[in-house]
Design brief:
heterodimer; A: alpha/beta; Rossmann fold; 2 domains; 29% strand; elongated; B: mainly alpha; two-stranded antiparallel sheet; 10 helices; binds adenosine-5'-triphosphate; binds magnesium ion
């Protein structure tokens, strides 16, 4: 397998605080890699180090084999960057924003003009190309930033929360673009949205406090957590008195009740039979195994507390 | 190496071209007011300074003042705006150019603005002045104007790089730049200073800017001590601007 992005014990400290702590990772070429984590986890810091905007305090990273420490210019030649905050030039039209980017990449007009036409078409901005970006909606601005990052046909595309603040239609449209890039280039994105990671990413890493917590495909991550046996049980009648009964059973780990529905966490699959037995004559309307969502995995790993 | 600097300068010139008319009116109004108010308002009180009619005495300094102010303004605000507001500097920095390209492109944009606006004020004053200007003196004057704009563009770049709060850029202008400009004798001859202070005043970079400009335009000759001062100030300011920006970006 060919490695597009490689991080070796990369660390970024702000004084005594470590925003990214000895982070190591290898991303295979041609994949869509998703980095998930709550606010302040260190995602942006990591991307800034990979895109040469920030120097690591220690460790190194290679992008397409070029070191961010010693070959920054070569790294920048092969990457496209969509930052967390749009940084368009509001004094230049949409097209001029793309043109300036192409020039900074040393492209010639006969190379960049057709490419820009194509990207404007693809992002649906062709009709607005001579307008200034501050007359655009948030979704249009975001698409323009993505188009700008693609002008020079990068080999690795970094997207920091590409769809934050977009409506469902715009998000889906952007996902389509990103899916279209898969295999042509390596995509390294961060997101807070589990459905986004689920829909887009070949591989997901969940991080918090500057370190990795879990790593794998969406299915693998969910699988690892489905060993928690959570069942939803609905009874006929009002379910009065059952909460105490369930809580008293040795193989029931936890009980949550809302009306006549219960959410039970059992010790293992073998607990299902004794549970049925002790329910006896009670009428069961529904019982089902609850599949964990990626969000459950995320919350289980990073906790429920809101970050300051 | 400077392809990137050229692209950034090109971007600034494109934006400048779009708003040039309103900018020029704004830029001409101030020196022209000073020229009319002081040059002609005071005519009854001050007729000549060292044999030169007063309006003519202040004209070269007013033109240079416009140029250096414009250079400082453009460099400081533009650097601040691109760094703190639009974050366009970050966009430049993820392309394969160097920080030198960015800072040099920005310095040249400030320089161009200064030189351009100075030239326009020169034309306007030349048109409305009753005094004859010897055009063979122009090369020496333009040289002086260019080096001065360069220095102030570098100083502006430094301010725009290290200062994060916009109000502090305004403070530097009114506490450092304006006094330095007015102390340098745009409106009065340096001989008005007490003998004890004079040697220090003569060493100020702004004195070289304004006294040099006056000597160049009126006499067609740039005194060597001023030329050296100008070149030295420009070189130091340039090195400092590049160094400061480089340091700031490495944070
Ligand atoms: N310049 C800075 N000085 C000090 N601390 C900083 C600085 N920049 C970031 N941090 C800290 O580093 C940590 C990681 O920040 P980072 O922006 O990488 O998080 P993030 O995962 O991108 O969060 P979000 O999802 O909110 O964008 C945070 O705790 C933040 O407070
Ligand atoms: Mg972030």
């Amino acid at each position: 397998m060919t490695i597009a992005v490689e991080l070796n014990e990369i660390t970024k400290s702000y004084g005594a605080f470590k925003a990214v702590d000895r982070f190591s990772l290898q991303v295979e070429r041609g994949t869509v890699f998703g980095l998930l984590g709550p606010n302040g986890a260190g995602k942006t810091t990591l991307i800034k180090m990979l895109t040469t905007l920030m120097r690591p305090s220690s460790g190194d990273a290679l992008v397409e084999g070029f070191s961010v420490l010693s070959a920054g210019k070569s790294v920048r030649r092969v990457i496209g960057v969509v930052p967390q905050e749009n940084n368009l030039d509001r004094y230049l039209t949409a097209r001029e924003n793309l043109t300036l980017h192409a020039r900074l990449h040393g492209m010639r007009p006969d190379a960049y003009n057709p490419r820009i036409d194509e990207l404007l078409e693809m992002t649906g901005l062709a009709a607005r190309q001579h307008d200034f970006p501050d007359t655009f909606s948030g979704g249009m601005q975001r698409r323009l930033v993505v188009a700008r990052a693609l002008v020079h046909e990068p080999r690795v595309l970094f997207l920091d929360e590409p769809t934050t603040g977009l409506d469902p239609q715009s998000r889906r449209a952007l996902w389509e673009h990103i899916r279209g890039l898969r295999h042509a280039m390596t995509v390294f994105l961060t997101t807070h949205y589990m459905d986004e990671a689920d829909a887009l990413c070949d591989r997901i890493m969940i991080m918090d406090h500057g370190a990795s917590l879990a790593d794998g495909t969406a299915a693998q991550l969910k699988d690892a957590f489905s060993r928690a046996h959570v069942y939803e049980l609905e009874l006929r009648g009002d379910g009065q008195g059952y909460q105490e009964l369930f809580a008293g059973l040795p193989f029931v780990r936890s009980v949550e009740r809302s009306g006549s529905s219960f959410r039970l966490t059992l010790a293992d699959e073998d607990s299902l039979k004794p549970l049925m037995d002790c329910l006896g004559g009670a009428e069961i309307r529904k019982i089902c195994l609850k599949e964990p969502s990626l969000e459950d995995v995320f919350i289980a790993l990073t906790g429920e507390k809101v970050r300051e | 190496m400077f392809r990137g600097a050229l692209s950034i300068w090109g971007r600034d010139m494109l934006v400048l071209r779009r708003g040039i008319l309103s900018e020029l009116i704004a830029v001409i109004a101030y020196p022209l007011t000073l020229y009319l108010a002081f040059g002609f308002g005071l005519k009854g009180y001050i007729s000549e300074v060292g044999g030169v009619p007063y309006p003519l005495f202040i004209a070269p300094g007013l033109i240079s003042m416009t140029a250096v102010n414009a250079a400082f303004d453009e460099s400081s605000w533009s650097m601040w705006f691109h760094r703190r507001v639009q974050h366009t500097i970050e966009e430049y920095r993820v392309t394969p150019i160097t920080v030198y390209d960015i800072v040099i492109g920005k310095i040249f944009s400030g320089f161009t603005q200064g030189a351009l606006k100075g030239a326009v004020v020169f034309l306007v004053i030349a048109l409305c002045t009753p005094f004859r200007i010897d055009y063979s003196h122009l090369p020496a004057y333009l040289l002086c104007l260019s080096i001065s704009s360069m220095t102030f563009s570098c100083l502006g770049t430094i301010c725009g790089t290290v200062i994060d709060k916009p109000e502090n850029i305004g403070r530097v202008q009114s506490v450092v730049i304006v006094p330095l400009i007015f102390m340098a004798g745009i409106f009065f001859p340096l001989s008005s200073y007490p003998a004890a202070v004079l040697p220090i005043i003569k060493l100020l970079p702004t004195t070289a800017v304004f006294e040099g400009a006056r000597a160049a335009l009126l006499l067609g000759y740039l005194p060597p001590q001023y030329l050296i001062n100008l070149l030295l100030s420009a070189s130091i300011a340039f090195a400092l601007a590049v160094y400061t920006f480089n340091r700031k970006m490495a944070e």
